[in-house]
TrEMBL record:
One of its GO terms (molecular function) is transferase activity. Keywords: Transferase. This is Undecaprenyl-phosphate 4-deoxy-4-formamido-L-arabinose transferase. InterPro entries: Glyco_trans_2-like, Glycosyltransferase_2, Nucleotide-diphossugar_trans. Residues 159-313 form the Glycosyltransferase 2-like domain. Pfam families: Glycos_transf_2. Residues 18-28 have a biased composition (Low complexity). Residues 1-43 are annotated as: Disordered. The gene is arnC_3. It comes from Novipirellula caenicola. SUPFAM superfamilies: Nucleotide-diphospho-sugar transferases (SSF53448).
Length: 381
């Protein structure tokens, strides 16, 4: 093996002579003597007790017939390219900024000298492992510092409830808009209330996300029932409602949510009429005005739009309220029950883009009659 002195055959007792860069052995045989090199561990000729049978020769060899073995010389540093320089001890990985040490004079090899393992100047596995370990520890430290300033996935500042019934065309745009404008710590709960237009299949194909919950029902139970179900699953400090029909822009929902996040209100309604309104139907505007006036008379509030979709609540307060209505009676019920509490109610403008019944609008005159009945039932909270 390189780096180890070659053994003499046990069957001969010859005199060993050392040269400057190798070792030669002269042994006595019947035919004379022969000179063999041990520095490179070449094959021995002559009888002897060897472990490997391919090294044995049964007959002595005439020295005159043996070719002259050239003397082998160990390479010195000047013979080898600097990029592939070998040194006899462990050398740190080269750094261009650090000057190389002066070359050492060659050391004569001896048979009994125990050489150290050879290693390349440019590769030091020990220092490389230390360097990579330090880099990994630095990365972990930076990640830990960053993680300390990030809210965990099970904590949300805002929960947006999206009740859905047959809104396959508009729901993707609503969800995309929510992702664009809402804070990172926002939880979205979608309740598919028995849709039959492909909405349910589209929701089933969405990639799962930690901050999005999808609840699908086989039968339609109404908006109020869907909102109640989502409230039970909500975790946000603030809970807001966003319809899936694009009549309300999710960007303006931020204006509704912000006063609660700032601690200036417990309940905020987004009014469609504070900034002049944009509902082209006079019948619809008149119906909303009448229902809001009657609600104010029974609750003592001074709202301009009780039936608005954009509503936001303190999450803990909302989850403490027991709700019963399944359809659009949810609006007067929740209004009456928050009025019975000692909470701060605020109203802010919100944008509204009305659509007709041919475009999928669902509320009708029967729902207006149901709202009147709910106002009377829940007038005391």
């Amino acid at each position: 093996m390189p780096g180890e002195s070659c053994r003499q055959p046990r069957s001969h007792r010859g005199a060993a002579k050392s040269s400057e860069f190798g070792t030669t052995i002269t042994t006595g045989t019947s035919g004379g003597s022969e000179r063999r090199d041990l520095a490179g561990c070449g094959k021995f000729f002559g009888s002897g007790d060897f472990d490997s049978p391919d090294l044995l020769r049964k007959e002595p060899i005439d020295p005159s017939l043996s070719p002259t073995v050239p003397e082998l010389r160990m390479p010195i540093e000047s013979d080898i390219s600097a990029d592939l320089m070998f040194t006899a001890d462990t050398v740190a990985t080269q750094d261009p900024a650090v000057a190389k040490p002066a070359a050492r004079p060659p050391v004569a090899a001896t048979p009994d000298a125990k050489r150290e393992s050879w290693s390349l100047d440019l590769v030091d596995p020990v220092d490389d492992v230390i360097r990579r370990t330090e880099e990994t520890l630095d990365f972990i430290a930076e990640a830990s510092i960053a993680a300390n300033s990030v809210q965990p996935l099970d904590h949300y500042d805002l929960t947006i409830i999206v009740p859905v019934y047959n809104e396959r065309q508009t729901l993707p745009k609503v969800l995309e808009r929510i992702d664009e404008v809402m804070p990172r710590s926002t939880e979205v709960i979608i309740v598919d209330d028995g849709s039959t237009d492909g909405t349910s299949q589209w929701l089933a194909g969405l990639t799962p996300r930690a901050n999005r919950t999808i609840i699908r029902r086989r039968c339609n139970h109404g908006k109020g029932s869907a909102v109640r179900l989502a409230i039970r699953h909500s975790q946000g400090n603030v809970v807001a409602i966003q319809d899936a029909d694009l009549e309300y822009d999710p960007a303006t929902l931020l204006r509704v949510v912000w006063p609660i996040l700032d601690g200036n209100a417990d309940v905020v309604y987004g009014s469609r009429y504070l900034d002049g309104g944009s509902d082209p139907s006079w019948l619809h505007r008149f119906g909303n005005w009448m229902l809001t006036k009657l609600s104010n008379l029974m609750t003592g509030l001074r709202l301009t739009d009780m039936e608005t979709c954009h509503k936001a609540f303190d999450g803990e307060m909302l989850r403490s309220i027991s709700l019963k209505e399944c359809r659009f009676g949810f609006e007067p019920e929740i209004t009456a029950k928050i009025a019975a509490k000692d909470v701060r109610v605020l109203e802010v403008p919100t944008h509204y883009d009305s659509r007709g019944y041919d475009e999928g609008k669902k509320i009708g005159w029967k729902d207006a009659v149901s709202a009147l009945a709910c106002m009377w039932i829940y007038r005391k909270g």
